[in-house]
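Handout, page 2. Input:
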Amino acid sequence: MKILVCRTDKLGDFITALPCIYVLKKQNPNNKIIACVAPLNKTLALSCEFIDEVVVDSGESVWRLASKLRALNVDASITLFSNTRIAFTQFLARIPKRIAPATKIAQIFYTDRVRQRRSQVKMAEFEYNLALTKELFSDIDLSYKKPLLEFSDAKDVYKIFCINNDIEKEVIAFHVGFGGSSDANWNLDEYEELIHAVLIENRYQVVLTFGPDEKELYEEMQNRFMNYNVVCYFSQESINYFAKLISNFKLFVSTSTGTYHLASLVGTPTMTFFADTLFASSKRWKGVGDEKLQQNFMIPIDKKEKDILFKKVLNLLKKV
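Output:
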């Protein structure tokens, strides 16, 4: 059976789709799984052994994208996050069975609409995605391996990184930037205090990571730590390279953004900060990895409560 899985938004959102894709392949190894993704997620999708083919939605006209999808000759599609464009495209592609959540006007273009009410956050995003597979295979096993993604050359990549940056200790990484739907984080002064808590203990190497669109932030943090043994890594390589690198870290500290989801995907322990709202909470956006490796904190709006949480996180970092 040829199955198309569509998730054409950002990095973290795509990562929440991977357990769903994995179980569809596990259900029957003869299933051919095709992922429709945004351009930035192409490389990561291609690295997943449970994805057989990748088609990229590069923003072309719906007619051209529909032509690409029609040529795949798929039997069914599962759209994990729908909009009118991707829904209408699949309708034009004449995919026989089209499954999606029953939301927005886009649902009229699907043959099978599943009422999930994701706004109630009764499950995590990746668990809602998994639930959609039941519409295609009622007896499907929703369990999946953790970590879900591993790279055979990850240790070699990390070894070279350590040599190039004179790293001789285990790494605690901080990603201080925002991204995706994240709307809560510590400010840079607070992050500086958290980082100093690790430096004072002198047990680990601190690495600060920055995405390709965070050059100003990278330069700011370089200036703040120019007199300390802190490695500032400005990522210009592929997402896969970054995934290989962070899979070797002792701990990845960040707000709830794509890099956090990537760390959880490859099995790295995480300390993550979320907004104190149901929509942006850890209940909705917990990582796809082992929950025992996830330390999730909701940053309160109230200043006194926020200060109490900050001191708690500070003490936890001192004891890592």
